[in-house]
């Protein structure tokens, strides 16, 4: 008896991600949600620049390639062009979304565009060699901060869910992680809720997924998952930062 199978919305081809990278887990969660909600045929994904630049190879739905940081703008155009027939999601890393694409992110959220944003935060620029990202932790060693991120010189990391929760526009904001089984299950619930919000025309949903990058962190996959638990999650607390349907608004964080 088959108890676990590949989601239909995920193509059966090898992925290009490094060993231990958790992008593959997140891809699967998105695909499982598309399957369970029966929306694969009407879904359009937006893949921008970054580690997810080849995501169009992996999802068995229509995909559009976006310029660096512009995925929310592209998603806005797609959903406004045909709001009744399409589900639109972006799949973005922290260098893409929280740096060059910050304006697109903020204004799409402020307008409460009816899109779903999957935001993968691994605190580093993964595809381009491990430079410091907007979300790199204080003191974190990267290729461009070899002595650790100096907040006096580089400022502090951007906490996207906290920042967007101050806007009146967004419908739903939640931060999750995929470093253990419990967190993976919670991540899927959040992603599914985001898609359900879009189906029900509630507006802008963003799920921030705390992820690992063993290669650019210079760690084994196991140590990278431990670093997520010990360093990243304490700085980026998991929980619901805004959910209008549940009455959770600015500054009220609900931790599972």
Rg calc: 17 Å
How many separate domains?
Answer: 1
Distance between the termini: 33 Å
Q: What is the H level of CATH, i.e. the homologous superfamily?
A: Thiamin diphosphate (ThDP)-binding fold, Pyr/PP domains
Number of strands: 7
Per CATH, which architecture? Answer: 3-Layer(aba) Sandwich
Q: What is the N-to-C order of secondary-structure elements (H for helix, E for strand)?
A: HEEHEHHEHHEHEHHE
- The strand line-up of the biggest sheet is 2-1-3-4-6-5-7
Overall pLDDT = 94
Strand fraction: 15-25%
The name CATH uses for the topology is Rossmann fold
The global form is globular
Low-confidence stretches: none
Characterization of this structure:
- Helix 1 (23-37) packs across helix 7 and helix 3 (94-100) crosses helix 4.
- The model has no long low-confidence stretch (mean pLDDT 94).
- With 256 residues, this protein is of the alpha/beta class.
- It has helices at residues 23-37, 71-81, 94-100, 102-110, 151-154, 160-164, 181-199, 214-217, 221-235; strands at 43-47, 62-65, 87-93, 116-121, 172-177, 205-210, 239-243.
- Strand 5 (172-177), helix 7 and strand 6 (205-210) form a beta-alpha-beta unit.
- The chain has nine helices and seven strands; from the N terminus they run H-E-E-H-E-H-H-E-H-H-E-H-E-H-H-E.
- The protein has one domain (23-246): Thiamin diphosphate (ThDP)-binding fold, Pyr/PP domains (Rossmann fold, 3-Layer(aba) Sandwich).
- The longest helix is centred in the C-terminal third of the chain and has 19 residues, at 181-199.
- Helices cover 35% and strands 15% of the residues.
- The chain is globular and about 50 Å long.
């Amino acid at each position: 008896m088959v108890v676990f199978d590949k989601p239909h919305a995920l193509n059966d081809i090898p992925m290009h991600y490094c060993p231990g990278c958790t992008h593959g887990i997140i891809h699967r969660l998105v695909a499982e949600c598309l399957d369970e909600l029966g929306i694969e045929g009407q879904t359009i994904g937006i893949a921008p620049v970054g580690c997810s630049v080849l995501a169009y190879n992996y999802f068995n739905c229509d995909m559009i390639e976006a310029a660096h940081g512009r995925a929310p703008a592209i998603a806005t155009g797609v959903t406004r062009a045909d709001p009744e027939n399409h589900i639109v999601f972006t799949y973005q890393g922290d260098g893409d979304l929280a740096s060059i694409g910050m304006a697109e992110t903020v204004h799409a959220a402020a307008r409460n565009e009816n899109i779903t944003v999957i935001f993968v935060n691994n605190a580093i620029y993964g595809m381009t060699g491990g430079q410091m990202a907007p979300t790199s932790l204080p003191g974190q060693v990267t290729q461009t901060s070899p002595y650790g991120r100096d907040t006096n010189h580089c400022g502090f990391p951007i906490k996207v869910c906290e920042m967007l929760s101050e806007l009146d526009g967004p419908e739903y904001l939640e931060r999750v992680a995929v470093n253990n089984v419990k967190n993976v299950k919670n991540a899927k619930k959040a992603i599914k809720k985001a898609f359900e919000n879009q189906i029900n025309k509630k507006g802008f949903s963003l799920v921030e997924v705390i992820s690992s990058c063993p290669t650019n962190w210079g760690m084994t996959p196991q140590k990278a998952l431990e670093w997520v638990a010990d360093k990243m999650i304490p700085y980026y607390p998991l929980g619901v930062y805004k959910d209008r349907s549940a009455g959770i608004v600015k500054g009220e964080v609900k931790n599972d």
